[in-house]
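Chain A, query sequence.
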Amino acid sequence: MNREIRRKIASGYPMLVVLFIAQIALAYLAVRSAQSDAIATFVLAMIASVAVLVCWAGFMMVHPNEAKVLQLFGKYVGTARDPGLRWANPFYAKVSVSTRVRNFESSKLKVNDANGSPIEIAAVVVWKVFDTAEALFEVDDYAGFVQIQSESALRNLGTTYPYEPHDGETIALRSNQNEIAEALVKEIQDRLTTAGVTVIEARITHLAYAPEIASAMLRRQQASAIIAARKQIVRGAVSMVEMALDELAENKVVDLDEERKAAMVSNLLVVLCSDESAQPVLNTGSLYT
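Chain A, predicted structure.
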């Protein structure tokens, strides 16, 4: 694999002065040799002028958060990262690679979660190039590679975890956003290491059931919420009935046999667990008549 080689490239300002002076001096020498019919001197001055003109091609501007990948006749020779005006071998091919932080949002992908339910999922990925040689030479188009591999990792993540937790499942896409984000970063980074790219952050931006089952899943969520609420109500009602019986027995307010206790428990549970206000019925007779 191609690994980045940092190259210290000379500042271009001293070379700018040298080439400017050389260009003027050679032009003056060529004119004087032509006037004095010194053909050999004139030819040498013209050859030197061409060489100086070629040297002007060695200048390059390196912007902040940008790198210049240098190649000599197809061979990678290094990467210049120091910003400013620089001068290098004029025969170097210079390719600019941005090292700025970038981000993109994936399209909405339709996948089946771990329970087989169709869902729609999308994510935003923040990334940057850390190895310019790998980014340029190991993959054909590193920006497109990042997008395709990120969407592939997102699909795999969507099939690994359920949309919401059921039956003791600990991690779900909807309820564990931080854990899912960490898993997504790792999944994407494993695929992009060979491209010289590091993933800074990845988070899910869209998560929903597919339209064909959205209404059914909404009813399921509502039913689950109702069941959870009913469990809490019944648990509280049983606790209150138990407390009432204990208080009655401890304070010796009334001595209840098992049948009367059962009737009292039934009445209290109906009152405490009912959705509507209880309507009392007055009993003018005995419990046994």
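The mean pLDDT is 83. Residues 10-96 form one domain.
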